[in-house]
Amino acid sequence: MEFRILGTVEVATSSGVTIRIGGPKVRTLLAVLLLRANTSIRTDRLVDVIWDGHPPRSAMSTVHAYVSRLRSRLAAAGADGADRIVTDAQGYRIRVAPHELDAESFRQHVDRARAVRDEGAAAAAGEEFDAALRLWRGPALADISAGFVHPHAASLNEKRAEVMEERLAIALDTGQPELVAELRKMVLVYPTRERLTGLLMLALYRAGRPAEALRAFQAICRRFREELGMTPGRELQTLHQQILTDTVAPPKPAGVPLAADRNLPPDLVDFTGRTEQVHRLTKRLTDTGTATAVYSITGMAGVGKTALAIHVAHLVADRYPDGQLFLDLRAHRTDSGAIRPDAALETLLLMIGVPRQAVPDTLELRAALWRTQMAHRRAMVVLDDAASLAQIESLLPGNKDCVVLVTSRHQLSGLATTDTVPVEPLSLDGATHLFTTIVGRNREIPAEDEIRDTASLCSCVPLAVRAAADRFVSRPAWSVGDLNRWLADTWVVRSETVSRDVRTGSALAGSFHLLDEALRDLLVSLVAYPDSTFDVDSAAAWVGMPTEKTSRRLEALVDRSMLESPHYGTYRFNALVWAYAYGQAVAVRRTA
Description:
This protein has helices at 24-35, 43-50, 59-75, 102-118, 122-134, 149-173, 180-189, 194-206, 210-228, 234-245, 275-284, 305-315, 341-351, 363-374, 389-392, 428-440, 448-457, 462-474, 480-488, 491-500, 502-513, 517-526, 536-543, 547-559, 575-591, and strands at 2-4, 10-12, 18-19, 85-88, 91-94, 293-298, 324-328, 380-384, 403-408, 419-422, 533-535, 564-567, 570-572. It is α/β, with parallel strands linked by helices. The chain folds into five domains: 1-170, Winged helix-like DNA-binding domain superfamily/Winged helix DNA-binding domain (Arc Repressor Mutant, subunit A), CATH 1.10.10.10; 174-256, Serine Threonine Protein Phosphatase 5, Tetratricopeptide repeat; 275-422, P-loop containing nucleotide triphosphate hydrolases (Rossmann fold, 3-Layer(aba) Sandwich); 428-477; 504-591, Arc Repressor Mutant, subunit A (Orthogonal Bundle), CATH 1.10.10. Strands 7-8-9-6-10 form a five-stranded parallel β-sheet, with helices on both faces. Strands 1-2-3 form a three-stranded antiparallel β-sheet, with no helix packed on it. A three-stranded antiparallel β-sheet has the order 11-13-12. Helix 1 (24-35) packs across helix 3 (59-75) and helix 7 (180-189) packs antiparallel against helix 8 (194-206). The two termini are 43 Å apart.
């Protein structure tokens, strides 16, 4: 069954036949349920939305009648249609699989397009953007007038416009055929979108029409001045200046295939410590066996798992001449979320040269093609920031001559690893050396005692040490004592500092916000415990929870690298995790 809101609201059978839904109120009911797909909506809320806050006295019974009518229409669309709308204690909800709702399919195509574009596959990204835009049949929710729907429709229409811009930018940047006419039409529809005007200017310039490009700039300047009382942004003004001075960059060569089977990120020039882990991994990577070797590298956010994996991969790259592939699985990216296995497989297949049109549609077929393509290769695959076994299981090649390095903040239960290498914070000497190395490239190296204090305040976590060193370098008037006072002013300031720092804060935020609610609550509750170390009984008593349940949750937090367990049954915070959790506790109290 297909549910469509990218245009008028429609339902179609699996064979593509559109079914009649009913009058405006029934279509509004369906639209509201689809906007909150798989989530219950109270009946009184439906009444308020359908009648825009002015319901008749019979509204409650009328809603029930509308639901019954909608169920009967859906029953005509498929065998389970009558069961799609579920009644529960909270109200009504509609059951919809992600691939059945056009808005969700649109999002998935866009996510895939942006992922492969970021990997350098412009042609594949263009195809995904085209597939996303083909789902649109007009303005979103075009036949629904209810006020509740307006902001949702506006948001969807805005996303469509953004994707149109991104698709046209790819077409223009790769030197695809004449785009001026299409861009002129788009600028008429969206006269204040600066990026569209910039693309039109670029297309005109590259078509040998610089005077028209300059007139397009003058037109938007005039429009902004008369309608908004402002001038266009810096990016558009820079392009205008480049056209005036004939310094616009040429387009990228069209049709350049993605060649990413050697796409390891560069090794860190200041990689520090990890001697034991590096020796352990490089030695094991020389061994041969009867199955694909899988090595799991685990640890908390910012501890250096990715740096270790990349460092080792470079050291042994010559042993894997048929490819060294790197893929960020984005388990803890709060902006886009983890890459799904099917999208990850598509990216890997494109990396090794499989044409986009030859990539199968289903996860199973993509996994089979991936294993077939890797069957005769001696290659290394680095899967960074994995969320779970389910995310990576289908990404493992079946060839014993291949090796896989997986980094994760979780213990990947069920993964048959050749070896699991835990990564902990650096030693005090290692963290001090890292700080000295970074600072020494830019300014005089301070006294070692002060640097050791800095390393301790950063809990010897490499990401935090790097952030502190970068801040010190960017503050030439500061002494290390100033930096240390800034780091250790108070726990409250420190927790906010962790949250503000782009690298450390976002890394910890990703780990924290992917915990389920019960684990987050336990972590936040434990920050107020009066001792730095606690056992299960003490923690259970502190939070008022049964010992067995507390034990399970403490172990789950250890598995996710949010707590440390120095001895059996004993737990403690890493200081940076404590500081971040403390900040969350403060935020909760402020909003309570």
